[in-house]
Amino acid sequence: MIELKVTDIKQYFYCPRIVYFCYVMPVDKKVSFKMSAGTIEHIRFETLEKRRKVIRYGLEQAERRFRVPLYSKRLGLRGVLDMLLINTQGEMFPVEHKATMQRLGLNHKYQLAAYAILVEDEFSTQVRRGFLYASLSKELREVEVDHSIRRALQRVLVIIRNMISTQRLPKVLHDKSRCGDCEYRLYCLDVR
After folding, report:
1. Which of 78, 105, 131, 151 is the most buried (most CB within 10 A)?
2. Residue 139 has pLDDT above 70, yes or no
């Protein structure tokens, strides 16, 4: 089984060619302004989050763990979760931070769902919901981790692994406005 990273799922939904270039045709990628700014914003998020109350997540009290490394041998998937909330009853809630002004998208939702499943495997628990937080727009979205998103995530993992093993360049599945900031733009010759 090809081991994947949770960010591959997010990237696949943003543009499957990013995953293709990472695994099939690894090339030097240009670090974009958005990537650099995102790293700085993640540090800021952690600093501020340590001082905030968890009431905005609908919890009265919770332990916070930052940058939680997670791995599932069953799924062949690994990643580092931005924050894990653990309430007084032991329930766990993954939180993914996004440094964006854009609306939180499907790519973020599936990334969070993947982290929820990794938390389940790592801690032998059940995760029913998690949170996406866009710090620049101050959007906080609760995401239910139900059976449909779990099944869809399993299908996406199969599709990604198939794309890598067959080495087929995938189609661009979005409008090409995303291509302007893409770190692989120079290698993606048929997208202008």
Report:
1. 131
2. yes
Query: Helix axis angle, 106-123 relative to 147-166, nearest 10°?
Result: 100
Question: Which residues, other chains included, contact 118 with Cβ-Cβ below 8 Å and sequence gap of 6+?
Answer: 6, 70, 71, 72, 75, 77, 78, 79, 81
Q: How many CB atoms lie within 10 A of CB 188?
A: 18
Task: Please provide the size of the chain in residues.
Answer: 192
pLDDT at position 27 over 70: yes
Is pLDDT of 37 > 70?
A: no
Look up residue 13 and give its amino acid. F
What residue segments make up the domains of the chain, in order of their start? 4-175
- Element of type H or E holding 132: strand 129-134
- What's the CA gap between 95 and 135, in Å, rounded? 12
pLDDT tens digit string along 77-106?
999 999 999 999 999 999 999 877 677 788
- Do 94 and 80 contact (CB within 8 A), yes or no? no
- 4-175 has which fold? Lambda Exonuclease; Chain A (3.90.320)
Q: With a cut of 80, say whether residue 8 has pLDDT above it.
A: yes
Q: Which two tokens stand for residue 36?
A: 């650099």
**3-class secondary structure, 43:** helix
Please tell me whether residue 142 adopts helix, strand or coil conformation. strand
Indicate yes or no: pTM above 0.90: no
